[in-house]
Amino acid sequence: MKICVLSDSHFGEFDIIDEKLKDVISNFNFFIHAGDVGSTKFLKFLSKYGEVVAVKGNTDIYPLDEILKYYEIVELEGIKIGIIHGGGNPLDIEGRVLTFFKDRGGVDIIVFGHTHYPIVKKIDNIILFNPGSCTKNRGWDCSTYGIIEIDKDIKIDFFDIK
Description:
Layout: E1 2-6, H1 19-25, E2 30-33, H2 40-47, E3 51-54, H3 64-67, E4 71-76, E5 79-84, H4 93-102, E6 109-111, E7 118-123, E8 126-131, E9 144-150, E10 154-160
Parallel strand pairs: 1-2, 2-3, 5-6, 6-8
Antiparallel strand pairs: 1-9, 4-5, 7-8, 9-10
């Protein structure tokens, strides 16, 4: 199973989705979005290609703040994935999201956003994954997305949208 992981898209209702991002999305049929989606338009666009699990971010306002939950836990192929946007100071976001999901029974992977830069690391046997921003990375000259591949092993990485 291959999952496209996005975060911090910040799409407005009238923003045009970049052709390069459309090309990436067209290769998947399952999506995780870690918040700051920006618009229902982008959620509807993703859902044309497959199932979408998304959480609300700190900038997601009406109607997204009523549609999306603060966090989600999904189990795919026997792997528990916790999804949250995160918030506050980016310097200690990893510790906060770890504690949040440990307090809820634990997960194998935590997908989060907020920082706009990609992270893949393992702490306490839990994989932390932030795909960066698919539109507005801070301090990077590119936009990024992630892939979680669940087969016999778990493969996780992020890629530039080229």
